[in-house]
Amino acid sequence: MSKLRVGTIVYIDSEKQSGVIVDENAQDITFSMEFVNDFVKVDDQVSFEITLDDSLKAINISIL
Length: 64
What we know:
The protein is mainly beta. Helices cover 0% and strands 56% of the residues. The protein has a 5-stranded mixed beta barrel with strand order 1-2-3-5-4.
């Protein structure tokens, strides 16, 4: 299990059911809405884990 990270949701594409989180290291990390545990919106502070697919992806996303 990876270390829990913290970040801010900066973009949500409701049509594609995806979005972007900027973490505490100023990295852009994409996510799919299927891995979101709460109702989220832009500017929400969230905790999440990282998985590596073709790029970094956020999973297990929850509002702080």
